[in-house]
Structures are given as structure tokens and as C-alpha cells.
Inverse folding.
């Protein structure tokens, strides 16, 4: 077996092309930008009465413009939120002792709840629009962002039939942080920090659970291949 001291420099993440560090000015400004964009979308949706009980514009061109405005803002939010989330997760997933990364990840998850709520409000609004079978198709006939999101909008209208009330959807989203998300985090921390004795190829070593899980999956794959 190759001694650990002979492994040389191990591979590592280099994401300095995204942000210099978690505590850099660029990263902090990006988080502030995310908050500002969330506030701006909240204001936009409030001004346009985008919620389940909100009225829809009777003019199809105005309806298309309203939908397109939401889509453009939400796309920008999702791109920024996705970049920030992936960047922070790269630290958490490779070093569960990084308390700074875990703190920032939790802060981003709270901001993610606002994104979820905005999406639920919009989907509920689309539900009211789809009650008129001609309203959405007429809006999608106009050139612009709404038409470019035709598939998404039609799918949202279809899936909106299965929505709970807005309060219930918001509660379910908030509870996920202390439910499924919390358990997933706990599993990741435990499997990456706890070591147990494990015999592999005649050698007993104290390995992290995450390593053992990987080895077991690899062994199962080998057995299936042989079968």
C-alpha cells in the first residue's frame, strides 16, 4: 500500500475565480445584492398585486408585461442565489468544521425561504389567471419574457392545482429548515467527523463514516458488475 506521506498534494477546491473568500468584500457585496433583489421583487409583486387573491390585468399585453417583469427578476435572483449557495456549499461539503461557512449557509437558507414564498405567491396568482382559459394564452402571444417562459408558465398553471393555501405553503417551507434540511446537515456532519475501525484489504484503519460509505458503495458496485 502507498504510504499516506507519499500521496503528495491532494486535490482541493479552487473557487477564487468565483469569489476570493467567504469573508471577502466581493462575496459580502454579492449577499447584499441578493437581499436588495429580494426586496425589489417583493415590492414589484406587491405593486402588481401578485398573489392568489390579486386581480389580473384585463389587457393581455399588460398581463404579459407583468409576468415578464416577474420572470426577469426571478431569473436574476435564482442565478445569484445559486452561485452563492454552490460557493458556500463547496466549503461546507469538504470541511464540516468550517463554522464560518456553516453560519453563512444557514443565513442563505433563510433568504431562500423568501424566494420560495415569492414563487408560491406567483404560482397562486397564475392559478387565478388560468381559471380563464383564454387569459394566459393571450398573454403568451405577445413577444417578450413571458412568451420565452411559455413552458414554465403552463407547467406552473397546471401544478398550481395542487397548492395548499399560501399560509400553509409558507409554513411548510419554514418548517423544512428545522426538519428535512436540519436532518440532512446532521447526517453530513456526523458522517464526516466520526471515525470507526474499518478493515479493508486486510488492514484495519480508523476511517470517517463518509469514507466507509464510499468504500461500501464501491464494493457493492463491484459485486453487481461481477454478477
Amino acid at each position: 500500500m502507498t504510504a499516506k506521506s507519499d500521496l503528495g498534494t491532494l486535490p482541493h477546491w479552487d473557487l477564487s475565480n468565483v469569489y476570493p473568500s467567504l469573508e471577502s468584500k466581493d462575496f459580502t457585496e454579492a449577499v447584499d445584492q441578493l437581499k436588495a433583489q429580494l426586496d425589489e421583487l417583493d415590492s414589484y409583486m406587491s405593486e402588481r398585486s401578485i398573489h392568489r387573491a390579486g386581480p389580473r390585468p384585463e389587457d393581455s399585453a399588460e398581463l404579459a408585461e407583468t409576468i415578464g417583469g416577474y420572470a426577469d427578476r426571478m431569473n436574476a435572483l435564482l442565478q445569484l442565489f445559486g452561485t452563492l449557495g454552490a460557493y458556500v456549499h463547496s466549503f461546507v461539503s469538504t470541511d464540516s468544521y468550517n463554522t464560518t461557512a456553516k453560519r453563512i449557509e444557514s443565513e442563505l437558507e433563510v433568504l431562500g425561504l423568501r424566494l420560495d414564498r415569492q414563487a408560491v405567491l406567483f404560482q397562486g396568482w397564475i392559478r387565478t389567471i388560468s381559471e380563464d382559459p383564454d387569459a394566459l394564452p393571450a398573454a403568451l402571444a405577445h413577444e417578450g419574457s413571458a412568451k420565452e417562459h411559455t413552458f414554465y408558465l403552463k407547467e406552473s398553471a397546471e401544478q398550481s392545482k395542487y397548492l395548499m393555501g399560501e399560509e400553509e405553503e409558507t409554513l411548510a417551507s419554514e418548517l423544512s429548515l428545522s426538519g428535512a434540511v436540519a436532518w440532512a446537515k446532521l447526517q453530513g456532519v456526523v458522517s464526516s467527523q466520526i471515525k470507526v475501525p474499518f478493515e479493508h484489504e486486510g488492514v484495519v484503519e480508523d476511517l470517517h463514516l463518509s469514507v466507509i460509505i464510499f468504500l461500501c458503495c464501491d464494493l457493492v458496485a463491484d459485486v453487481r458488475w461481477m454478477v
